[in-house]
Design goal:
This protein has 15 helices and 6 strands. By secondary structure, the protein is α/β, with parallel strands linked by helices. The protein has 2 domains: about 240 residues, Rossmann fold, CATH 3.40.50; about 60 residues, Orthogonal Bundle (Histone, subunit A). It has a 6-stranded parallel sheet with strand order 3-2-4-1-5-6, with helices on both faces. Helix 3 links the parallel strand 2 and strand 3. Helix 6 crosses helix 9 and helix 13 runs antiparallel to helix 14. The longest helix is centred in the C-terminal third of the chain and has 24 residues.
């Protein structure tokens, strides 16, 4: 019997926010006080061996507060929003069956959207066509391909930033393989389950403070051995720079450094700038999100404020 037959609309907490806003620390603190299990909503944390550049929780943290959907695929594999949705829903059912509450934590907003709204039914990936698009981007630049996308699918181009290589590539791939724009394909299936979504958006009251935190964190990643981590991954796996794992912020820039295309100072600047751009995109998603309660991620009393609010939403502390 489905868990939903036994408990109508069970709660699920969504904890969303930009990179470096403190989501993991808050989730771990909440997990110590509430009967929750954490599910990672992060397209980078799924990869094994990519620990430093993804700010993956360390072994002690994961031992004290296990995170589902961390370290589940190799860097050579792809992990999609559709696969995330299926994995997350199965985990959520199992967590509720154990008498606990799913706490979904991360910054991959596309995954959150897929979870709540269903997933697009799109043509399958075409590796040869992707390679052709990548070669064209190398010759002309992604902004030029974004302009091409704007001609064939203005609706998609309005949603996709001109430097978002992965989404531009996918949109053009769908167009060239099917003759139909991706915005036409995007007719979402109805969600196959009913949950009481309790949604939290961590946003910076002081954007400059978040940028300073991003700069410190990227420097800490370099100090902790990000470049050596990538070098070891490249030695262990048949990686290419166009693989989804290697497009993750930090790894893209470290790849260029290892290939001698930039020096360490340039790596630092590019990595920090790319992380800030990622945070900006995530905050853009959050501005358009409906239903989330916003909290200032830079506030000193963040944990206490969120915990009190959750209790007001009916989430009782662990006995």
């Amino acid at each position: 019997m489905s868990i939903h037959a036994a408990q109508a609309n069970p709660p699920a907490i969504l904890l969303m926010g930009p990179t470096a806003c403190g989501k993991t620390d808050l989730a771990v603190a909440l997990a110590a006080a509430l009967p929750v299990e954490v599910i990672s909503v992060d397209s980078a944390l799924v990869y094994r061996g990519m620990d430093i550049g993804t700010a993956k929780p360390d072994a002690a943290t994961l031992s004290a507060c296990p995170h589902h959907l961390v370290d589940i695929v190799e860097p050579t594999e792809a992990y999609s929003a559709g696969r995330f949705r299926a994995d997350a829903l199965a985990l959520m059912e199992a967590i509720v069956a154990r008498g606990r509450i799913p706490l979904l934590v991360g910054g991959t907003m596309l995954y959150f959207k897929a979870l709540k709204e269903g997933i697009d039914r799109l043509p399958v990936a075409d590796p040869a066509l992707r390679a052709q698009i990548d070669a064209e981007a190398a010759a002309r630049g992604w902004p030029a391909l974004h302009a091409e996308l704007a001609r064939v699918d203005p609706q998609a181009a309005n949603r996709i930033h001109s430097s978002d290589a992965q989404r531009i590539q996918r949109a053009l791939e769908v167009w060239h393989s099917s003759g139909r724009p991706i915005s036409d394909w995007q007719r979402r299936e109805a969600p196959d389950c009913a949950w009481r979504w309790i949604e939290i958006a961590l946003v910076p009251g002081d954007r400059a403070a978040l940028h300073a935190r991003i700069e410190r964190r990227f420097q800490a990643m370099l100090d902790a051995g990000l470049v050596d981590e990538l070098a070891a991954l490249r030695a262990r796996h048949a990686l290419t720079p166009d693989m989804p794992a290697m497009r993750c912020v930090g790894y893209r820039q470290a790849w260029d450094y290892l290939d001698g295309q930039c020096d360490l100072d340039t790596l630092r600047r590019r990595g920090t700038a790319a992380t800030r751009q990622l945070a900006k995109r995530q905050l853009t998603w959050l501005r358009g999100w409906r239903g989330a309660r916003e909290f200032d991620c830079m506030a000193a009393d963040l944990y206490g404020t969120v915990l009190t609010w959750l209790q007001g939403e009916g989430i009782s502390p662990s006995p």
